[in-house]
Amino acid sequence: MKYGKVYFEDVVVGAEITSLQKGPIQQIQLTRYAGASGDFNPIHQDDEFAKAAGMGGVFAHGMLTMGFVAQAVTDWAGAGSVRKIGVRFTGLVRLKDTVTCRGRVVDKVAKDGAHTVELEIWAENQRGEKVVTGRATVGLPSRDR
Amino acid sequence: MAIQVNRGVIGKEYPPYTVTVERGKIKEFARAIGDLNPFYLDDAVGRASEWGDVVAPPTFATTFRDEAIAAQALRDLGIDISRVLHGEQEFEIHRQMRPGETYLCRSKVIDIYEKSGRTGSMAFVVRETVATDDANEIVATMRHITVVRL
Predict the structure, then answer these.
(1) Which of A83, A99, A122, A132 should one mutate to test binding to chain B, selecting the residue with the greatest count of B CBs within 10 A?
(2) Hey, is the C-beta of A90 within 8 angstroms of any chain B C-beta?
(3) Nearest to B30 by CA among A39, A33, A135
(4) Sorting pLDDT into bands at 50, 70 and 90, what band is A1?
């Protein structure tokens, strides 16, 4: 099931979450994301502008790729589960690129009735180059409750 | 030609601005990412959920922007938008947002530092934006690092 329910007790430190493949990136998605997010930087829309800026052509909003990674997390842990998510943008995502979002459990903590899991998260392009790296903290339901 | 970033804006707080969480905007944003999670898109699923309504994707608070402040921030730094890249981004989500709620957003410049690498010199502008609800409780905290190619 795509939107599975994960219980805290079933999470194993070191295990990877289900990966999520997005793309190939098309210009229309960048235009749509600009409208939805309000980020109309022409560097993501106008190839001439992006080339003149020395970027070699348009590339995806970092926030779109972060949105993909966040989706991988919520597909696994559930909508509304994310307490904290932070990333560093380490590479540009270009048109026609595919982005595979992955995550691995690095810690789980049960404290004061809250059950949280810490994930290492990242996204890589079709050449295996990391374009985003980061961490996420999710709250999960417990069977004890 | 190398450019300079105005470090005088460190500590600057921008005028607070309000944002309203719109149901349609949540759906537009989720669809733009291609995330078709029914907890974002289906009002009936939202009503039956523990939150009683649809919730927003984790990065939704990126839509809490004010055009005038964004333009002012670039002018304050003394740079053009073509020089700007997104370096890092963090969201702390203190509670789920609800459609129809209005938040007050406060944005400030925390730090500016420079680094030199194989691709040249870059300035890193660290900003924080905090969204609070009517009860003055924090709903979301965003930390952004903007990279300026010098």
Answers:
(1) A83
(2) no
(3) A33
(4) very low
Q: Do A89 and B88 touch (CB under 8 A)?
A: yes
Distance CA A21, CA A144 (A): 34
Q: Which domains does chain A have, with CATH numbers?
A: 1-24+62-145 (3.10.129.10), 26-59 (no CATH)
For the segment B42-70, the average pLDDT, to the nearest whole number, is 96
Q: pLDDT-derived band of residue A2, with 50, 70 and 90 as boundaries?
A: low
Q: Which residues of A touch B87 (CB under 8 A)?
A: 88-89
What domains can you pick out in chain B, each with its CATH number?
7-21+64-149 (3.10.129.10)
Tokens read off for B10: 């460190």
A111 min Cα distance to partner chain B (Å) = 17
Distance CA(B97)–CA(B40), nearest Å, equals 11
Residues of chain B above pLDDT 90, percent: 93
